[in-house]
Amino acid sequence: MLRAGIVGLPNVGKSTLFNAITRTRKADAANYPFCTIDPNVGTVVVPDARLEPLRRIAKTSVVVPAAIEFVDIAGLVKGASAGEGLGNRFLTHVREVDAIVQVVRCFDDPDVHHVSGTVDPVRDIEVINTELVLADMETIAKRRERVAKAIKGGEKTAIAEDAVLAKLEEGLNAGRPALAIALTAGERALAKQFFLLTDKPTIFACNAREADLATADSNSYVTAVRAYVKTHLACEAVVISAQIESDLVDLSPEEGEAFLKELGVHESGIGALIRATYHLLGLQTYFTAGEKEVRAWTIRIGDTAPNAAGAIHSDFERGFIKAETVAYEDLVHCGSIAAAREKGLYRMEGKEYVVADGDVMLFKFNV
Length: 367
Description:
The chain has 367 residues and is α/β, with parallel strands linked by helices. The protein contains 14 helices and 12 strands. Strands 2-4-1-5-6-7 form a 6-stranded mixed beta sheet, with helices on both faces. Strands 3-9-8 form a 3-stranded mixed beta sheet, sandwiched between helices.
């Protein structure tokens, strides 16, 4: 299962957000730096409104949604790349995740300590990104030293690798994360082998006050974050209120809906954040639907039908013959598999078929 790491400065609401996302109280959330030391890990259900219509069509009571893992990582401080704070431990934990959710404080509260003394979300982003860039520059310097020996021996692959490392080094020296450095598809594939921290897909979570959630679009901190990450990092920023989300953990769905309505908010920011993180990881969903259950299966964008079959069991992929497929929208519009088949919307797909998000599938295989 792919993992998204929740990172940020100490005391910006990471652990509170983790508890809200995982609907647990697993992570300590206290008003002092380095409250979290060892990472907390939790499995998170991906909200998907398509499951309920499919459940009604399949006439089943069992629904199994898609899931991903979130990791609550200790707060990073200026100088982490040189060992400050939890330093290398933090960076190691970041290196182990597949994507980053960077939490940024977007509220003023004198009762909540800020490690820098004042609230400035763009400065906070730059502090964290600088530390990640510095760590990556060290990784690249060491890699280039090793590659140099192979280049002396005339290895062509080493020469190609060093050329990519040089491009990355130049970009990092200019303060750009590896993900924002222009590389060809082949160069990008080589860069993945270096496991750079700034090469991980990233999304920013603007943590706002409860009272500001309904009017977040006019929050000056949120506006500044959105403009900065779009211009400098080519990333997305979503707005959440970690404290509100934490309060919702203890409420029933009906009570939670009423609570959000009172605040002038239609949907929990957590749902949007989880879905955005799911897509950030390069994932999409296909479904199987029958009387036994309706289940959402997680695959990578671009996967073929045999790859999708393998998500269920390796035997399905190994012995793949064909996939009976119908688009979610077509199935819901028709109201049943039989009706979709009569209208020619239920089709057979072979090994080359690239699965679309929302496909409802039944696999034929022979082992």
